[in-house]
Amino acid sequence: MMNVMELPSVLKQNSGMISRIGMAIVMACAVSLANTSDSYAATSAEKLVAKKASIVSKMHKKAKKALVNSAQDNVFGEYFHSTSDPAKAQSKTRIQGLTLRVQGKFHVDEMCLIAIDGVELTRIVGNEIAPDSDLSLDETGAIFFAPGFALKKKESLVSPTYMSPDAMAWVIAYVTPIVVDGKITSILHYEHGMKVFQEAIIKGVSGDQYMLAVTDEGFIVSDSRSPVNFKAKSDKEEQVDYFAAFDSSLKAVVSGDKGAGSIPGFDVAFQKVEGGLTLIAVTKQ
Questions:
Q1: Residue 47 located in a structural domain
Q2: Rounded to two decimals, what is the model's pTM?
Q3: Which candidate, 18, 31, 151, 266, has a CA 20 to 30 Å from the CA of 227?
Q4: Does 182 share its domain with 213?
Q5: How many domains does the chain have?
Q6: pLDDT, tens digit, for every residue of 94-106?
Q7: Domain boundary among 148, 164, 194
Q8: Gap between the Cα atoms of 195 and 154, Å rounded
């Protein structure tokens, strides 16, 4: 065992080796820091898209929960059990009151109750109740109709974006079944305007970064660099009539449900969310 008194002499004899080891440690730390710096831009893109995806997912979760909770109200059972016109009319008025309360609390653009044969039973647009003469006789072609009736009690889904003829704007819809005596009698449905999601996606994004939201059909419905119009244009209902096509160099990077990559000068991260949208974050390297 080395005598403590001999330690200074040993250190002196090996000072060169110790110096080289110290220099190697310093260089290793420098390389590590450089690598961390090199990967930070990509990490910031991934963090940004994850943050925005989380925000949109929470919005969907909140909306679905409110709709499902509303669908459990006893008034729906009363309506479908009614055997007289006055009793059915009374229950219908109560359903309209329920939907108006939901609209007031969650600011939905449109909310309706649709029977299994496609007939619209009640509808509100904003805070206005639609008269019976204005109710649709056939909603079977709606993007959410068939998927909605395939759900089980207390299940819900988020539809892809579409042009709402009632809200007169591009929306995302939520739907849940109304189950009475173990059978699906109708679906309860409401719409949130795409503008709400656009604002959440682009909020706080500026400078050397930007955010996009792209539909499954390949159109940009949110872009932090420029405004997107969601209001109806006469009778046009197709995405191509409203939105720019997603045909940039980013297409080579964005593939699948989630991932990251880069294009010259920029790092890219993307993540798919409910409603048929892919969120894309781009940050400068």
A1: no
A2: 0.82
A3: 266
A4: no
A5: 2
A6: 999 999 999 988 8
A7: 194
A8: 27
The reply to whether 43 falls in a domain is no
Q: Is residue 218 part of a domain?
A: yes
Where residue 21 falls (left for φ over 0; alpha for ψ -120 to 50; beta otherwise) is alpha
Q: Which two tokens stand for residue 265?
A: 């000068």
Could you tell me if residue 160 is inside a domain? yes
Q: What is the β-pairing status of strands 277-284 and 209-215?
A: antiparallel
Structure tokens at 65: 């929960």
User: Both 121 and 245 in a single domain?
Assistant: no
pLDDT at site 175:
98
